[in-house]
Amino acid sequence: MKLTLAPSLMSKKAARWAVIGLCSASALWLSGCGSTVKLDDKPVAVESRTIPGQGGSGQSSAVPASTVAPVSTSADDEAAARAARARVIYFDFDSYVVKDEFRPVLESNAKVLSAARSKRIFVEGHTDERGGREYNLALGQKRAEAVVKSLSVLGVSPDQLEAVSYGKERPAVTGSDEEAWAKNRRVELKDR
Question: Against a cut of 0.85, is the pTM above it?
Fold first, then answer.
C-alpha cells in the first residue's frame, strides 16, 4: 500500500507510522470479529429409523406397503394440520440431532419452500440458559445447520436457507426449570 501525501503535510517517517497505526487498528478490529469456538467438521447427525419388514435388512414384508391403507382419524388429521403450520423444531439437552417426531414439520416446510423457489427463510438456532455464551452460540449454530441439512435432503435449495444462531440470547420462555429449558432448546423457521 502506497500512501501519497504532499511532502509539506506529512514527513516520510510520520507517513510510515500512520500506515503502521492503520494496519494495527485493522488487525485488532479483525481479531475481535473472530471466535475461539471451533465447530467440528463431523457430519450432522439426523435420526433415522427403518420400518420393520421394509428394506434395511433384506427382509421382505408379507404385505406390500402399497396395499396397506393408512387409518386416518380426526385426531391424526388435526396433528398433521398442526405440523403443517408448525415452524419450530425442539431438541434434547446438549444435542443437535433432529428427532423423527419433527419429520412432518420439516416435510411440510420443505414442500412449501420447494414450490416457491424465490421464498427464503432464516433457520434460527436457540439454546436454554445453561452453559457459556460461546458454547451456546456454537450449539445453536449446529442445531440450525442440522435443520438446514435435513431440509436440503428433502429437496430445498441451500440458497433459500440461512442458518443463524442466537444461543441463549432470545429465550422463548423465561424460567429456570426443565419445562422452560425444553421450550428454549429449539430451531425456528422464519421468513426473510
Answer: no
Q: Partners of 191 in the beta sheet?
A: 121
For the chain, the domains span 86-192
Dump pLDDT digits (tens) for 136-183: 999 999 999 999 999 999 999 999 999 999 999 999 999 999 999 999
CATH no. for 86-192? 3.30.1330.60
- Please state, in angstroms and rounded to a whole number, the distance separating the CA atoms of residues 54 and 62: 10
Residue 46 has pLDDT above 70, yes or no: no
Q: HSE, CB side, 13 Å, CA atoms: give it for residue 185.
A: 21
187: DSSP letter: E
> How many residues are listed for the chain in this entry?
192
Q: Cell numbers at residue 174, please?
A: 423465561
Residues 186 and 91: beta-carbon distance below 8 Å: yes
